[in-house]
Design goal:
With 360 residues, this protein is α+β, with helices and mostly antiparallel strands. Helix content is 37%, strand content 24%.
Protein backbone atom coordinates (compact mmCIF):
# COMPACT_ATOMS: atom_id res chain seq x y z
CA UNK A 1 0.00 0.00 0.00
CA UNK A 2 2.81 2.42 0.89
CA UNK A 3 4.40 1.79 -2.53
CA UNK A 4 1.16 2.20 -4.45
CA UNK A 5 1.63 4.81 -7.19
CA UNK A 6 -2.00 5.89 -6.76
CA UNK A 7 -1.14 7.58 -3.47
CA UNK A 8 0.59 10.44 -5.29
CA UNK A 9 -2.34 11.13 -7.60
CA UNK A 10 -5.50 13.09 -6.99
CA UNK A 11 -8.91 11.44 -7.20
CA UNK A 12 -9.57 13.33 -10.43
CA UNK A 13 -6.74 11.38 -12.06
CA UNK A 14 -7.90 7.98 -10.91
CA UNK A 15 -7.81 6.54 -14.43
CA UNK A 16 -4.11 7.42 -14.61
CA UNK A 17 -3.67 5.80 -11.23
CA UNK A 18 -5.29 2.67 -12.59
CA UNK A 19 -2.98 2.64 -15.64
CA UNK A 20 0.28 3.36 -13.80
CA UNK A 21 -0.34 1.71 -10.44
CA UNK A 22 2.33 -0.64 -9.13
CA UNK A 23 -0.25 -3.42 -9.04
CA UNK A 24 -1.98 -3.04 -5.69
CA UNK A 25 -4.65 -0.64 -6.93
CA UNK A 26 -7.48 -2.69 -5.38
CA UNK A 27 -6.03 -1.95 -1.92
CA UNK A 28 -5.56 1.75 -2.67
CA UNK A 29 -7.80 4.05 -0.65
CA UNK A 30 -8.10 6.47 -3.57
CA UNK A 31 -9.12 3.78 -6.02
CA UNK A 32 -11.66 2.33 -3.59
CA UNK A 33 -13.35 5.66 -2.98
CA UNK A 34 -13.37 7.18 -6.48
CA UNK A 35 -13.64 4.83 -9.43
CA UNK A 36 -15.40 4.18 -12.68
CA UNK A 37 -18.35 2.23 -11.36
CA UNK A 38 -18.86 0.13 -14.49
CA UNK A 39 -15.54 -1.57 -13.75
CA UNK A 40 -16.94 -3.15 -10.58
CA UNK A 41 -20.70 -3.34 -11.06
CA UNK A 42 -22.19 -5.84 -13.46
CA UNK A 43 -25.54 -4.07 -13.76
CA UNK A 44 -26.39 -3.94 -17.43
CA UNK A 45 -29.44 -2.21 -18.83
CA UNK A 46 -30.73 -3.35 -22.20
CA UNK A 47 -30.49 -0.73 -24.95
CA UNK A 48 -34.21 -1.02 -25.72
CA UNK A 49 -35.11 -0.76 -22.02
CA UNK A 50 -37.19 2.02 -20.53
CA UNK A 51 -36.38 3.96 -17.32
CA UNK A 52 -38.07 2.49 -14.25
CA UNK A 53 -39.44 5.91 -13.27
CA UNK A 54 -41.39 8.45 -15.30
CA UNK A 55 -44.80 8.46 -16.98
CA UNK A 56 -45.04 6.03 -19.91
CA UNK A 57 -47.97 4.51 -21.79
CA UNK A 58 -48.60 1.73 -24.29
CA UNK A 59 -45.60 -0.31 -25.36
CA UNK A 60 -43.26 1.98 -23.41
CA UNK A 61 -45.15 1.22 -20.21
CA UNK A 62 -44.68 -2.51 -20.88
CA UNK A 63 -40.95 -1.95 -21.31
CA UNK A 64 -40.88 0.01 -18.06
CA UNK A 65 -42.53 -2.83 -16.16
CA UNK A 66 -40.02 -5.27 -17.66
CA UNK A 67 -37.16 -2.98 -16.60
CA UNK A 68 -38.56 -2.84 -13.05
CA UNK A 69 -38.67 -6.63 -12.95
CA UNK A 70 -35.08 -6.85 -14.18
CA UNK A 71 -33.90 -4.32 -11.59
CA UNK A 72 -35.68 -6.21 -8.81
CA UNK A 73 -34.02 -9.45 -9.94
CA UNK A 74 -30.60 -7.82 -9.97
CA UNK A 75 -31.16 -6.48 -6.46
CA UNK A 76 -32.09 -9.99 -5.29
CA UNK A 77 -28.95 -11.38 -6.94
CA UNK A 78 -26.93 -8.70 -5.17
CA UNK A 79 -28.35 -9.73 -1.80
CA UNK A 80 -27.75 -13.41 -2.49
CA UNK A 81 -24.19 -12.95 -3.74
CA UNK A 82 -23.26 -11.69 -0.24
CA UNK A 83 -20.15 -9.60 -0.95
CA UNK A 84 -19.07 -7.06 1.64
CA UNK A 85 -21.87 -4.76 2.74
CA UNK A 86 -19.84 -1.71 1.72
CA UNK A 87 -19.73 -2.99 -1.86
CA UNK A 88 -23.42 -3.81 -1.70
CA UNK A 89 -24.31 -0.22 -0.82
CA UNK A 90 -22.42 1.24 -3.77
CA UNK A 91 -23.54 -1.49 -6.20
CA UNK A 92 -27.18 -0.92 -5.22
CA UNK A 93 -26.92 2.83 -5.75
CA UNK A 94 -25.18 2.41 -9.10
CA UNK A 95 -27.79 -0.09 -10.31
CA UNK A 96 -30.60 2.22 -9.20
CA UNK A 97 -29.10 5.18 -11.04
CA UNK A 98 -28.58 3.06 -14.16
CA UNK A 99 -32.18 1.88 -14.27
CA UNK A 100 -33.71 5.22 -13.25
CA UNK A 101 -31.64 7.12 -15.83
CA UNK A 102 -31.45 10.13 -13.51
CA UNK A 103 -28.67 12.61 -12.95
CA UNK A 104 -27.78 11.98 -9.32
CA UNK A 105 -28.53 9.43 -6.56
CA UNK A 106 -27.02 9.62 -3.07
CA UNK A 107 -27.38 7.30 -0.07
CA UNK A 108 -26.94 8.54 3.52
CA UNK A 109 -26.58 5.77 6.13
CA UNK A 110 -26.13 6.11 9.91
CA UNK A 111 -23.28 4.12 11.46
CA UNK A 112 -24.65 1.61 13.97
CA UNK A 113 -26.69 2.44 17.03
CA UNK A 114 -24.32 5.09 18.34
CA UNK A 115 -24.65 7.22 15.19
CA UNK A 116 -21.10 8.53 15.54
CA UNK A 117 -20.85 9.17 11.82
CA UNK A 118 -22.68 8.87 8.52
CA UNK A 119 -21.57 6.87 5.51
CA UNK A 120 -22.45 8.55 2.22
CA UNK A 121 -22.45 6.86 -1.19
CA UNK A 122 -23.10 9.16 -4.15
CA UNK A 123 -23.48 8.33 -7.84
CA UNK A 124 -23.31 11.08 -10.41
CA UNK A 125 -23.18 9.76 -13.95
CA UNK A 126 -20.91 6.70 -14.04
CA UNK A 127 -18.84 7.76 -11.05
CA UNK A 128 -19.47 6.55 -7.51
CA UNK A 129 -17.89 8.34 -4.56
CA UNK A 130 -17.92 7.41 -0.88
CA UNK A 131 -17.47 9.63 2.18
CA UNK A 132 -17.58 9.24 5.94
CA UNK A 133 -18.87 12.30 7.82
CA UNK A 134 -18.07 12.33 11.57
CA UNK A 135 -20.86 14.72 12.51
CA UNK A 136 -24.57 15.30 12.21
CA UNK A 137 -25.74 16.17 8.71
CA UNK A 138 -27.05 19.72 8.50
CA UNK A 139 -29.08 19.11 5.35
CA UNK A 140 -32.67 18.02 4.84
CA UNK A 141 -31.55 14.35 4.81
CA UNK A 142 -30.12 14.90 8.28
CA UNK A 143 -33.53 16.13 9.42
CA UNK A 144 -35.15 12.91 8.20
CA UNK A 145 -32.49 10.80 9.94
CA UNK A 146 -33.19 12.69 13.17
CA UNK A 147 -36.91 12.00 12.88
CA UNK A 148 -37.79 15.61 12.10
CA UNK A 149 -40.50 16.47 9.56
CA UNK A 150 -39.13 18.48 6.62
CA UNK A 151 -40.86 21.50 5.15
CA UNK A 152 -44.53 20.97 4.25
CA UNK A 153 -44.00 22.17 0.68
CA UNK A 154 -42.60 18.70 -0.05
CA UNK A 155 -45.12 15.96 -0.89
CA UNK A 156 -45.19 13.02 1.53
CA UNK A 157 -46.75 9.55 1.42
CA UNK A 158 -47.77 7.33 4.33
CA UNK A 159 -44.40 5.55 4.55
CA UNK A 160 -42.45 8.80 4.83
CA UNK A 161 -41.19 9.29 1.27
CA UNK A 162 -40.81 13.00 0.42
CA UNK A 163 -40.74 14.26 -3.14
CA UNK A 164 -41.37 17.18 -5.46
CA UNK A 165 -41.64 17.53 -9.22
CA UNK A 166 -40.79 21.24 -9.12
CA UNK A 167 -38.01 22.40 -6.82
CA UNK A 168 -38.76 26.03 -7.66
CA UNK A 169 -42.07 25.69 -5.75
CA UNK A 170 -40.37 24.81 -2.45
CA UNK A 171 -40.07 27.22 0.44
CA UNK A 172 -36.79 28.97 1.15
CA UNK A 173 -36.29 26.73 4.19
CA UNK A 174 -36.64 23.55 2.12
CA UNK A 175 -34.34 24.92 -0.58
CA UNK A 176 -31.67 25.73 2.00
CA UNK A 177 -31.96 22.24 3.49
CA UNK A 178 -31.51 20.67 0.07
CA UNK A 179 -28.58 22.87 -0.87
CA UNK A 180 -26.75 21.86 2.33
CA UNK A 181 -26.45 18.25 1.13
CA UNK A 182 -22.98 16.91 0.40
CA UNK A 183 -21.55 14.34 -2.04
CA UNK A 184 -24.24 15.30 -4.54
CA UNK A 185 -24.61 17.78 -7.38
CA UNK A 186 -27.83 19.07 -5.83
CA UNK A 187 -26.44 22.40 -4.50
CA UNK A 188 -25.71 23.40 -8.11
CA UNK A 189 -29.15 22.32 -9.27
CA UNK A 190 -32.06 24.44 -8.09
CA UNK A 191 -34.71 23.16 -10.49
CA UNK A 192 -36.22 19.82 -11.43
CA UNK A 193 -37.49 16.83 -9.46
CA UNK A 194 -36.37 15.28 -6.18
CA UNK A 195 -37.30 12.24 -4.06
CA UNK A 196 -36.13 11.41 -0.53
CA UNK A 197 -36.75 7.73 0.30
CA UNK A 198 -36.16 6.71 3.95
CA UNK A 199 -34.40 3.45 4.83
CA UNK A 200 -35.82 1.70 7.91
CA UNK A 201 -34.13 -0.88 10.11
CA UNK A 202 -35.63 -2.40 13.25
CA UNK A 203 -38.30 0.29 13.43
CA UNK A 204 -35.88 3.23 13.05
CA UNK A 205 -34.96 5.49 10.15
CA UNK A 206 -31.28 4.75 9.51
CA UNK A 207 -30.82 6.09 5.99
CA UNK A 208 -32.12 8.22 3.16
CA UNK A 209 -31.88 7.65 -0.59
CA UNK A 210 -31.87 10.98 -2.41
CA UNK A 211 -32.85 10.88 -6.11
CA UNK A 212 -32.22 14.11 -7.95
CA UNK A 213 -32.75 15.16 -11.59
CA UNK A 214 -32.97 18.49 -13.45
CA UNK A 215 -36.16 17.41 -15.26
CA UNK A 216 -39.45 18.68 -13.86
CA UNK A 217 -42.56 16.47 -13.47
CA UNK A 218 -40.47 13.30 -13.32
CA UNK A 219 -42.17 11.25 -10.58
CA UNK A 220 -45.60 9.64 -10.56
CA UNK A 221 -47.26 8.17 -7.45
CA UNK A 222 -46.58 4.74 -8.94
CA UNK A 223 -42.87 5.62 -9.18
CA UNK A 224 -42.78 6.64 -5.53
CA UNK A 225 -44.38 3.37 -4.43
CA UNK A 226 -41.95 1.37 -6.55
CA UNK A 227 -38.88 3.22 -5.23
CA UNK A 228 -40.11 2.86 -1.65
CA UNK A 229 -40.46 -0.91 -2.03
CA UNK A 230 -37.17 -1.35 -3.86
CA UNK A 231 -35.18 0.65 -1.30
CA UNK A 232 -36.47 -1.62 1.46
CA UNK A 233 -33.71 -3.99 0.30
CA UNK A 234 -31.26 -1.55 1.85
CA UNK A 235 -32.50 -2.56 5.31
CA UNK A 236 -31.10 -6.05 4.62
CA UNK A 237 -27.75 -4.53 3.64
CA UNK A 238 -27.76 -2.35 6.78
CA UNK A 239 -28.21 -5.46 8.92
CA UNK A 240 -25.31 -7.17 7.17
CA UNK A 241 -23.11 -4.10 7.48
CA UNK A 242 -23.66 -3.93 11.22
CA UNK A 243 -23.06 -7.66 11.58
CA UNK A 244 -19.80 -7.27 9.63
CA UNK A 245 -18.71 -4.46 11.91
CA UNK A 246 -19.52 -6.50 15.03
CA UNK A 247 -17.45 -9.39 13.69
CA UNK A 248 -14.59 -7.05 12.88
CA UNK A 249 -14.58 -5.73 16.45
CA UNK A 250 -14.63 -9.29 17.84
CA UNK A 251 -11.78 -10.31 15.54
CA UNK A 252 -9.70 -7.32 16.61
CA UNK A 253 -10.08 -8.42 20.24
CA UNK A 254 -9.23 -12.02 19.34
CA UNK A 255 -5.95 -10.94 17.79
CA UNK A 256 -4.78 -9.28 21.02
CA UNK A 257 -5.38 -12.30 23.27
CA UNK A 258 -2.51 -14.63 24.19
CA UNK A 259 -4.39 -17.94 24.36
CA UNK A 260 -5.15 -19.86 21.13
CA UNK A 261 -8.42 -18.53 19.72
CA UNK A 262 -10.21 -19.17 16.43
CA UNK A 263 -13.48 -17.91 15.00
CA UNK A 264 -15.66 -20.09 12.75
CA UNK A 265 -18.96 -19.20 11.11
CA UNK A 266 -22.15 -21.25 10.92
CA UNK A 267 -20.70 -23.19 7.97
CA UNK A 268 -17.66 -24.24 10.07
CA UNK A 269 -15.38 -21.98 8.03
CA UNK A 270 -12.50 -20.22 9.79
CA UNK A 271 -12.97 -16.44 9.74
CA UNK A 272 -10.17 -15.63 12.16
CA UNK A 273 -7.36 -17.36 14.02
CA UNK A 274 -4.91 -15.46 16.21
CA UNK A 275 -1.16 -15.96 16.10
CA UNK A 276 -1.11 -18.34 19.09
CA UNK A 277 -3.75 -20.59 17.56
CA UNK A 278 -1.77 -20.74 14.31
CA UNK A 279 1.40 -21.56 16.23
CA UNK A 280 -0.28 -24.38 18.16
CA UNK A 281 -1.66 -26.08 15.05
CA UNK A 282 1.49 -25.41 13.01
CA UNK A 283 -0.29 -23.58 10.19
CA UNK A 284 -0.02 -20.18 8.52
CA UNK A 285 -2.90 -17.72 8.28
CA UNK A 286 -3.21 -18.51 4.56
CA UNK A 287 -3.67 -22.20 5.46
CA UNK A 288 -6.53 -21.43 7.85
CA UNK A 289 -8.49 -18.30 6.92
CA UNK A 290 -11.47 -19.08 4.68
CA UNK A 291 -11.01 -22.84 4.91
CA UNK A 292 -13.41 -25.35 6.44
CA UNK A 293 -12.50 -26.45 9.94
CA UNK A 294 -12.49 -30.14 8.99
CA UNK A 295 -9.73 -29.50 6.45
CA UNK A 296 -7.61 -27.66 9.02
CA UNK A 297 -7.88 -29.88 12.11
CA UNK A 298 -8.63 -33.21 10.44
CA UNK A 299 -11.87 -35.19 10.10
CA UNK A 300 -11.39 -37.31 13.23
CA UNK A 301 -10.76 -34.38 15.57
CA UNK A 302 -13.49 -32.31 13.92
CA UNK A 303 -16.18 -35.02 14.14
CA UNK A 304 -15.32 -36.21 17.64
CA UNK A 305 -14.56 -32.96 19.47
CA UNK A 306 -14.94 -29.67 17.64
CA UNK A 307 -18.20 -30.11 15.75
CA UNK A 308 -20.31 -31.22 18.75
CA UNK A 309 -19.03 -28.25 20.78
CA UNK A 310 -19.48 -25.74 17.93
CA UNK A 311 -22.99 -27.04 17.21
CA UNK A 312 -24.01 -26.43 20.81
CA UNK A 313 -22.62 -22.90 20.64
CA UNK A 314 -24.45 -22.26 17.36
CA UNK A 315 -27.59 -23.16 19.29
CA UNK A 316 -26.84 -20.30 21.70
CA UNK A 317 -25.14 -22.27 24.49
CA UNK A 318 -21.91 -21.10 26.12
CA UNK A 319 -19.92 -24.32 26.09
CA UNK A 320 -16.94 -25.33 28.24
CA UNK A 321 -15.45 -28.84 28.11
CA UNK A 322 -12.23 -30.60 29.11
CA UNK A 323 -10.77 -32.53 26.16
CA UNK A 324 -7.48 -33.96 24.88
CA UNK A 325 -6.11 -32.37 21.71
CA UNK A 326 -3.10 -33.01 19.51
CA UNK A 327 -1.10 -29.97 18.41
CA UNK A 328 2.05 -29.63 16.34
CA UNK A 329 4.27 -28.97 19.39
CA UNK A 330 1.90 -30.31 22.06
CA UNK A 331 0.67 -33.89 21.34
CA UNK A 332 -2.04 -35.35 23.60
CA UNK A 333 -2.53 -32.11 25.51
CA UNK A 334 -5.24 -31.85 28.14
CA UNK A 335 -7.16 -28.65 27.41
CA UNK A 336 -10.14 -26.63 28.44
CA UNK A 337 -12.10 -25.60 25.34
CA UNK A 338 -14.71 -22.85 25.46
CA UNK A 339 -17.06 -22.22 22.54
CA UNK A 340 -18.81 -18.87 22.82
CA UNK A 341 -21.69 -17.91 20.50
CA UNK A 342 -21.33 -14.59 18.65
CA UNK A 343 -24.62 -12.94 17.65
CA UNK A 344 -25.35 -10.54 14.82
CA UNK A 345 -27.37 -7.35 15.27
CA UNK A 346 -30.63 -9.29 14.87
CA UNK A 347 -29.70 -11.62 17.73
CA UNK A 348 -28.98 -14.69 15.59
CA UNK A 349 -25.77 -16.66 16.18
CA UNK A 350 -23.56 -16.14 13.16
CA UNK A 351 -20.20 -17.33 14.47
CA UNK A 352 -18.50 -19.21 17.32
CA UNK A 353 -15.37 -18.11 19.17
CA UNK A 354 -13.22 -21.11 20.14
CA UNK A 355 -10.94 -20.41 23.13
CA UNK A 356 -8.38 -23.06 24.14
CA UNK A 357 -6.42 -23.23 27.42
CA UNK A 358 -3.81 -25.85 28.20
CA UNK A 359 -4.33 -27.57 31.55
CA UNK A 360 -0.76 -28.87 31.68
Amino acid sequence: MEECYCRSLSSENIEKAYDFCSGDYKACAIFQNVFRAQDVVAAQVAKESCPVIGLFTGSQRLLQLQARQELSLQVLELLESNPSARNMFRDFIFMLRNFCCVNDITLYILDGDNHLHQEIVGCQGDEVTELVVPKKLECICGQILEGEVPDQTLNRNDSGVYWTNDRTSLSEEAAQGLNACINTCCPEQREGSLALVPVHYQGRTVGVVRINDPRADLFTLDDIRFLDGLCSALSVIVGRARAERNREYAEMIVETLKSPIGVVDSEYVFRKANAEFLRWIGRSEADVHGREMVDVVGKGLFDQIYRPLVDRALGGERVKERVTLDFAEHPATSCSVRCLPHSDVAGSVDAVIIDIHSLE
